[in-house]
Amino acid sequence: MAHASIKALLALALTLSAAPMLAHAKDAAFPAPAMMEPAATDQATEKAVLAGGCFWGVQAVFQHVKGVKNVLSGYAGGKADTAEYEVVSTGTTGHAESVEITFDPKVINYGTILQVYFSVAHNPTQLNYQGPDTGTQYRSAIFPEDDAQAKVAKAYIEQLDKSKIFDAPIVTSIEQSKTFYPAEAYHQDYATLHPTDGYIMYNDLPKVENLSRMFPDLYSQRAQLVNGNAG
After folding, report:
1. Which residues participate in catalysis according to the annotation?
2. What is the mean pLDDT of the chain?
3. Inside any domain, residue 141
4. Residue 127: CB partners within 8 Å, gap ≥ 6?
């Protein structure tokens, strides 16, 4: 779909959205992490695994972030034999709908990935739900790849809570030593492939628009899709 059409849909989605997704009003000054992960000089890419409600919208946000090479929708928190959509949807598997973000640490760091995650990708004050979606499979969770990521994530949550930028405490869990499992093919690039879907228009396209508004230097008009780029 042409970029102009996407922008028109974004504008319509924002008009239809009756209330802001996030629980803060100072989004123009959303703070960066005070603690950053040490710069990786010997790695071409790093990974971050994050959960924040339905993976369609979280994937869509990070596909528009400069320095991100790939974003997979999937599951984390449970076992391999339950990592499938119909089973995860029961809310009994320990899995959360998640995304695995592969990024270039020379272009964007893990701390900035978390800044986008907390500010526009989801609402970290909602316990076991996001918007219309309820259940532990929609929880806010960070799955660190190592101790360094866990330390940055923990420090940032403490920083944001102390800053009072949200009007409620952050409930994001930090869950280490969990494996990420890619979701079924039909879940990949879902927001881009179905931009006129009512759920996507109301819940997810405004997140992408907020990314472009709040982080213009990070925003890429061209989405880095699993199955090829889109204009």
Report:
1. 54
2. 89
3. yes
4. 139, 140, 171
